[in-house]
UniProtKB/TrEMBL annotation:
<keyword id="KW-0378">Hydrolase</keyword>
<dbReference type="Pfam" id="PF01934">
    <property type="entry name" value="HepT-like"/>
</dbReference>
<dbReference type="GO" id="GO:0000166">
    <property type="term" value="F:nucleotide binding"/>
</dbReference>
<keyword id="KW-0547">Nucleotide-binding</keyword>
<keyword id="KW-0540">Nuclease</keyword>
<keyword id="KW-1277">Toxin-antitoxin system</keyword>
<dbReference type="GO" id="GO:0004540">
    <property type="term" value="F:RNA nuclease activity"/>
</dbReference>
<dbReference type="InterPro" id="IPR008201">
    <property type="entry name" value="HepT-like"/>
</dbReference>
<protein>
    <recommendedName>
        <fullName>DUF86 domain-containing protein</fullName>
    </recommendedName>
</protein>
<dbReference type="InterPro" id="IPR051813">
    <property type="entry name" value="HepT_RNase_toxin"/>
</dbReference>
<keyword id="KW-0597">Phosphoprotein</keyword>
<dbReference type="GO" id="GO:0016787">
    <property type="term" value="F:hydrolase activity"/>
</dbReference>
<dbReference type="GO" id="GO:0110001">
    <property type="term" value="C:toxin-antitoxin complex"/>
</dbReference>
């Protein structure tokens, strides 16, 4: 039995919510806190893998979501994690993930997604 793409969208939202638990930290506190940093670092990989499972038809309906970039980030973290610098990860955590979470909530609220 194939897994519904809605479950992958929920996986993505859950990963966003886990990343957003680091809110309240500034850049320097985030980078210094190894436990938080490592926990946050795992979730963009989950986002990337789940994004790859969302069908093209759904992706096409929501072009504002950067599906390819999300999937690509997962690949970078899995295969070239040393290429991601702290400032880039912080930008993802502080800006991109909250916006993605909001988009995913809207997508999931629509019954046909």
């Amino acid at each position: 039995m194939s897994r519904s793409h809605r479950l992958f969208l929920r996986d993505m939202l859950e990963a966003c919510e886990k990343v957003m638990r680091s809110e309240g930290l500034d850049f320097h506190a985030f980078v210094r806190n190894e436990l938080v940093y490592d926990a946050v670092l795992r979730n963009p990989g989950v986002l990337g893998e789940a994004a790859k499972k969302v069908p093209d038809s759904v992706r096409a309906r929501y072009p504002s979501v950067e599906w390819r970039a999300i999937a690509g980030l997962g690949d970078v973290l899995a295969h070239a994690y040393f290429a991601l610098d702290d400032a880039t990860l912080w930008d993802i955590v502080a800006h991109k993930v909250p916006a993605l979470a909001e988009a995913l909530r809207r997508i999931l609220e629509e019954g046909d997604a």
